[in-house]
Amino acid sequence: MRPELFRLFDVGFPSYFVLLLSGFLFATALGVLWARRIGMNPDAIVDLGLAMLLAGVVGSRLLHVFADGYFWDYVHLCTDPAQVDWPLERAECLSSAYDGVWDAAKGVCHPKNADCFAWAKFWAGGLTYYGGFLGATAAAVFLLRRDKFPFWKAADMAGFAIPMGLAFGRMGCLLAGCCFGATTDLPWGLSFPPRSPATEAQVKEHLLGSLRMWSLPVHPTQIYESAASLGIAAFCLFWLLPRKRYDGQVFAASLALYAVARFLVEILRRDARGGAVGLSTSQLIGLGLLVAAALIHRTRNRNRSPRAA
């Protein structure tokens, strides 16, 4: 675990955002090469990538705030910080790092000061992939129509570029310690250091007695999802793209494959993710996207041209 990847001119660079940006640059580069290969304007892909990045961050943050189970914490941070519990020990609570208020009766720490803009501080952590995907999709629809770029051709490009970028982003999650899995005895289980999100969760579940302890070994769900995303990108780019029967087929396949992979990984995850009817928010959205992928396949395959480029 390495939340801060490096420092430059005394400025810390968070691992998650460095890997997220790396994934974005790599995915955009793939898109530019693809556009040149099919004779389209690569500048449109660069503009598209930047817009999708910004809209994706906004969407991913909003879904986190409203669906990951922290909504009332953000509300109380603004209205009544005493209702927000931090799972810290007394010494840590009163240290300069947290500067909190110790609640001896409950044995928890509370924030000292109200913060009505905590919900907007995306750089402090708390982003969801599906929120980013939905936000980026909205930006893509607008820009592609504006630039008169063939929508479904661009969607097929996204079908291999997005999971490639996500493979980088999930490794950033690993370094940040978020998106961790359930405890395991498997030989590849990972233990996270003291005060990590995994340790905090296991203290809450009474699996550990202190935040100063290393976490019990957990499934490296970040690596599972990164590997699955890389596999989806490779399949879509090297096998399906040259054989597609209609524009939009690569995107539909990527959408469905990721939804299935994410649904399975979610079963092993143990970080706070919200949800309903026994399923996490991401699993519920994934089921909706499976339906969307099936509809895209049905409508696009029915209306396909004799040979998709």
UniProtKB/TrEMBL annotation:
The lineage of its organism: Bacteria, Pseudomonadati, Myxococcota, Polyangia, Polyangiales. Belongs to the Lgt family. One of its GO terms (biological process) is lipoprotein biosynthetic process. The keyword Transmembrane applies. Pathway: Protein modification; lipoprotein biosynthesis (diacylglyceryl transfer). The chain crosses the membrane at residues 12-33, 45-67, 127-145, 157-183, 223-241, 248-265, 277-297. One of its GO terms (molecular function) is phosphatidylglycerol-prolipoprotein diacylglyceryl transferase activity. This is Phosphatidylglycerol--prolipoprotein diacylglyceryl transferase. Coiled coil: none annotated. Keywords: Cell membrane, Lipoprotein, Membrane, Transferase, Transmembrane, Transmembrane helix. Its EC number is 2.5.1.145. It is found in: Cell membrane. GO terms for cellular component: plasma membrane. It comes from Labilithrix luteola. A 1,2-diacyl-sn-glycero-3-phospho-(1'-sn-glycerol) binds at R170.
